[in-house]
Specification:
The structure holds two protein chains of two kinds. By secondary structure, chain A is α/β, with parallel strands linked by helices. Chain A has 25 helices and 20 strands. In chain A, helix 5 (84-98) crosses helix 20, helix 14 (295-301) packs across helix 17 (372-394) and helix 18 (403-414) packs parallel to helix 25. Chain B is built from six helices and nine strands, in the order E-H-E-E-H-E-E-H-H-E-E-H-E-E-H. In chain B, strands 5, 6, 7, 8 and 9 form a five-stranded antiparallel sheet that branches. Chain B has a four-stranded antiparallel sheet with strand order 2-3-1-4, with helices on one face. In chain B, strand 6 (117-121) and strand 7 form a beta hairpin. The chains are: A alpha/beta, B alpha+beta. Chain A binds chain B through residues 1, 3-4, 6, 8-9, 11-12, 152-153, 156-157, 160-164, 181, 212-216, 337-343, and chain B through 14-19, 22-23, 26, 30, 47, 63-64, 67-68, 70-71, 73-76, 171, 173-175. The complex binds thiamine diphosphate. Thiamine diphosphate binds at residues 423-427, 450-453, 476-479, 502, 504, 506-510 of chain A.
Chain lengths: 594, 175
């Protein structure tokens, strides 16, 4: 296994920018060896990978590593989360805003199993993350020892790669491989389980970065013929529609992407994971696709003649009923992961490879175009959506506060430059629909797994990775209470996260479904909530509650102006619904406005 | 067949790795796909294992499964083939009471006609080995059942393809 870390022939893959940058400084360090323990090797290896912050929780089987983290605390900052799930989401938030690998660490047994939700979330949302777990000493493996759990077995289906280390000498190469795999190609989570005896064992340490694994092709070669075929379809299209996903952000293709759609004049819509790759206000940005996406791109998906999918995977929340999805269109799919091609939607042209490289190569092949008439259709449908939905969400005339107007206020006061970190539910859909994203990597949300409890800890990681940015966490009263304990992390780390809870006293999204599809039988969705402001104050945060429209602007202003963390509860209308909506099982063009 | 369901032999070349069997079988389990047979062995390349998996499904499905298998980091390459595209065999072993060998002349005829081979004989029992297609083994099983079989076991399918596999060249490109 260890022998499989090879230098890869250049022709086989596009070089990773992230990899080459630090190579030279590292190379100097590689020759000499020092005799150290496995646990020290873990910490030195992390530092060699450029890790400056990691999130975790100590316990018996990982204590030797914590002892080294104590010694190296000037070089690497360990953040004590309040639950291992929080640690993974913080690592995810860190990764999503920075593009770097997030790191989480935990002890064996319950510590390790508590990581699983975050790992599964990172797997489905392609987030680069390395998790390190302690394990019982190797001679006890399989004996049902105290806090022994088969975390490698448990995490196998939700990791890009995982491995158990039982010998200290394996540690540097395994960690190098872990980081390489986590961040290369389509990113994902990797778990390394290290037995306690391997942490204590001494060996001759040296570190070398991994630059390739022979059985793994992170970026498939792009066939120039497919690019030509794609260009031809796009050039001949009368009604082209781009749907882009997180792939554009992950491959740092924002500029190349903008150049392509601007030259060819293509209306472009985003999946929830693709949000913020180009600004909300960009004239070619026609909004979000999918279940609670915008009216025009959903309806016109079933009218376009060429659908150009870029770095997205046709999730069922995006496509609705598959056999009535864009059947009239030719489909072009730009994708890094060959397993995604034809997985859900049959493509006419698949362009494998890295989005940035592919789009840069595509640009000169495209004709300039404007598609003015086609654009008008999007504008017309937007006008309908504005009348029926948006106006009432953003500028309500009824008494109760709407989630939309809170977002509107946050937009105004942050000038659309904040990173918006959401939890899961109605507020998430409202935030994605209405937040102004002027900067890339600004929408940090749990898209594929829909993990309630993601938001607050993810916001901590985002703020710590990008302290210069305004980070606003937006949660519902339900999901907020799933990881509310991370307020303790905010307080201890002095992480200046702005925490907003949109309190409708319901598990709103589920209640909406109960109203629409279960005859209003509100089974276990009503929440009797605690005094959220008192709780925040208990953690020594500045905190305020807003119940009236007149108070909203000032409260948001005070929150944004705060140099420190700030908690704002907004009591919103209890039974508002999120529209438009593609009911599950319906076609995207059957989207409902009310 | 109108359903398009066929028997496919999936061949997977992998790095030798403890966890890989788990990863690969999980791909099938998640999708409720029954594995008809599974065999893991060394391959023609040192340090490279070969999984031979037999499944019944449509070509569209098997293609998707190949994609998921190849996505695993330690999988070098995965292929799928129809029965016509492979040369394949299974091996079965029958343990039978020795006295029958001498008392029932019919058994000796069956052994001869089926092209099976006696691996060992002792006072109590003898062991018969038969390699071949599934239906040949099943036929032999039926014929011997009449006399009583003490133990029976059949291996997973092993198969080589008529087409060339280019694993060595692929690996050479990395070094
Ligand atoms: C961990 C987890 N459990 C359950 C769900 C199912 N679920 C999806 S949205 C939702 C309601 C969320 O309510 P709340 O956090 O109050 O947000 P709101 O919808 O009211 O904005 C639930 C229970 C989930 N997504 N994640």
């Amino acid at each position: 296994m260890l022998g499989t870390c090879f230098r890869v022939a250049d022709k086989f893959l596009i070089k990773e920018n992230m990899n080459t940058q630090t190579m030279t400084t590292e190379a100097k360090d590689t020759k000499k060896t020092i005799r150290i323990s496995g646990s020290e090797a873990v910490v030195r290896s992390l530092i060699a990978e450029g890790v400056d912050i990691l999130y975790g929780y100590p316990g018996g089987a990982i204590m030797p590593v914590y002892d080294e983290l104590y010694k190296f605390q000037d070089e690497i900052h360990h953040v004590l989360s309040r639950h291992e799930q929080g640690a993974t989401h913080s690592a995810q938030g860190y990764a999503r805003i920075s593009g770097k690998v997030g790191v989480a660490i935990a002890t064996s047994g319950p510590g390790a199993t508590n990581l699983i939700t975050g790992i599964a979330d990172a797997q489905i949302d392609s987030t680069p993350m390395v998790c390190i777990t302690g394990q019982v000493p190797s001679h006890l493996l399989g004996s049902d020892a105290f806090q022994e759990t088969d975390i490698v077995g448990i995490s196998t289906p939700v990791t890009k790669w995982n491995h158990q280390v039982t010998k200290a000498s394996e540690i540097p190469a395994v960690i190098a491989k872990a980081f390489y795999i986590a961040k290369s190609g389509r990113p994902g989570p990797v778990l390394i389980d290290i037995t306690k005896d391997a942490q204590f064992e001494e060996f001759d340490y040296s570190y070398e970065k991994c630059t390739g694994v022979r059985s793994y092709v992170p970026v498939p070669k792009t066939d120039p013929e497919t690019l030509k075929a794609a260009a031809e379809l796009i050039n001949n299209a009368k009604k082209p529609l781009v749907v882009w996903g997180q792939g554009v952000i992950l491959s740092k293709a924002e500029e190349a992407f903008k150049a392509v759609i601007e030259k060819a004049g293509i209306p472009s819509a985003w999946t929830i994971m693709g949000a913020s790759a180009i600004p909300t206000s960009h004239p070619l940005n026609v909004g979000m696709v999918g279940m609670h996406g915008n009216y025009a791109p959903n309806v016109l998906t079933n009218e376009c003649d060429v659908l150009i999918a870029i770095g997205m995977r046709f999730d069922d929340r995006v496509t609705g009923k598959l056999d009535e999805y864009a059947r009239q269109a030719k489909v072009v799919h730009f994708e890094i992961d060959p397993a995604e091609i034809d997985k859900n939607v049959k493509t006419d042209v698949a362009v494998l490879g890295d989005a940035k490289a592919s789009l840069e190569a595509l640009l000169p092949l495209l004709n300039e175009n404007t598609h003015t008439e086609w654009h008008q259709k999007f504008k017309d449908l937007y006008a309908i959506e504005f009348e029926k939905v948006i106006k009432n969400d953003l500028h309500p005339t009824k008494e109760g506060l709407t989630m939309g107007e809170v977002l509107n206020e946050i937009n105004t006061q942050t000038k659309g430059e904040a990173a918006i970190v959401t939890d899961v539910g109605q507020h998430q859909m409202i935030a994605c629909r209405y937040a102004d994203f002027n900067v890339t990597k600004s929408n940090i949300t749990s898209g594929g797994l829909g993990t309630m409890g993601f938001g607050l800890p993810a916001a901590i990681g985002a703020k710590m990775a990008a302290p210069e940015r305004e980070v606003v966490s937006i949660s519902g009263d339900g999901g907020y209470q799933m990881t509310i304990q991370e307020l303790g992390t905010i307080f201890q780390q002095k992480a200046a996260v702005k925490v907003v809870v949109l309190n409708n006293e319901f598990l709103g999204m589920v209640r909406q479904w109960q109203q629409l599809f279960f005859d209003k039988r509100y089974a276990s969705t009503e929440m009797t909530n605690p005094d959220f402001v008192a709780i925040a104050k208990g953690y020594y945060l500045n905190a305020k509650r807003v119940t009236k429209r007149e108070e909203l602007a000032d409260a948001v202003a005070e929150m944004i102006a705060s140099e420190e963390a700030y908690f704002l509860e907004v009591c919103v209308e209890k039974e508002d619904n999120v529209f438009p909506m593609v009911p599950s099982g319906a076609s995207v063009s059957e989207i409902r406005l009310e | 067949m109108s359903t398009g369901i066929k028997s496919y032999t999936i061949s997977v070349y992998t790095e030798n790795n403890i966890g890989l069997l788990n990863r690969i079988s999980a791909i099938f389990q998640r999708r409720h796909i029954n594995i008809e047979s599974l065999n893991i062995s060394v391959s023609e390349i040192e340090g490279v294992s070969r999984f031979t998996i037999v499944v019944n499904m449509t070509e569209e499905k098997v293609r998707k499964i190949i994609g998921q298998i190849e996505k695993q980091i330690e999988v070098i390459k995965a292929y799928y083939h129809t029965e016509e595209e492979t040369i394949y065999q299974e091996t079965a072993m029958f343990k039978i009471k020795s006295e029958l060998l001498f008392e029932e002349r019919q058994i000796q005829n069956i052994i001869k006609e089926s092209n099976s081979r006696i691996v060992t004989v002792n006072k109590e029992f003898f062991v018969l080995e038969k390699s071949g297609r599934r239906n040949e083994i099943e036929l032999l099983h039926r014929e011997l059942s009449v006399f009583g079989i003490l133990q029976f076991t059949r291996s997973g399918r092993i198969a080589v393809t008529k087409e060339r596999m280019e694993i060595s060249q692929m690996l050479a490109a990395f070094n």
